[in-house]
Amino acid sequence: MNDTAEKLLIPVRECFSLADTLNCGQCFRWQEQDGGWFEGVVERHWCRVRQEEDGIVVEALGGDDWQGDFWEAYFDLAVSYGDFRERLCADERLADAAWFAPGIRILRQEPWEALVSFIISQNNNIGRIRGIVARLCESFGGAIAAGVYAFPLPQALAGLTVEELAPLRSGFRAGYILDAAKQVASGALDLEALRTAPLDEARLALQQIRGVGPKVAECALLYGLGRRECFPMDVWMKRAMTRMFPDGLPSCARGCEGVAQQYLFHYARSSPDFAEKYGAE
DNA sequence: TGCCAGGCGACGC
DNA sequence: GCGTCGCATGGC
Questions:
Q1: Is the pTM above the cut of 0.70?
Q2: Facing residues of A46 across strands?
Q3: pLDDT score of A6 more than 90
């Protein structure tokens, strides 16, 4: 499995749905295609992926090589979501949400990309976020292959003006993207250090960026920096919490709040059960 | 048409 | 500290 190859089978033992994981609103660059394939770019790897009986097939589309370890990390396969689920299911309401999409995992995305993607996400919808991210990559990301672009490095954005970002049609978020780029490119903000920094320090550091408040910081930490105890509260989650957990999240979620959050987010948005059991306002 | 979208900053109190 | 409003853009 660790052999360098253009096509890999990544074995998956439990709790994984590729489609649910890529479609649940945590990432914005994968495109669903015919035959169960998803095409996308992760860091500098252009590939397509598909779920098969015994795992995930990853096929390089460029003259690219990588190792299985890379994809194991990306799909968060080193930890047992069965264990997380068992803990969450101690609460009946969390169990409902957890069973609605048992194969969702938290991707371990590149931190800079996660940060910018969730800056773009504010007061926005998932379809439009995807469009803005795509235009950001096309405009400033550098080509990996013909018509295929990497996510732009902070250094590629730090010297730009909001006028130059106009083609993204990102609205008031353009200035926020540039401030993030300047802080990361200059070294004022060290994203990698936030993987292990005390959580409250990491939150505060991220919120020094203009346009990054509690929610976006929480998303960057959960989706980009592997901090599974983070719990982003967007409009859907506020709705879910008000109706399902007026007294707060049950203690059984401690340590895997982010996993609970992703189940609840998807449940509140997509499950007819949520509307039925917890009602419209 | 108006309302909403994986929020945040500015402002008034 | 807390509530309210405006913010660009586009889909419904």
A1: yes
A2: A41
A3: no
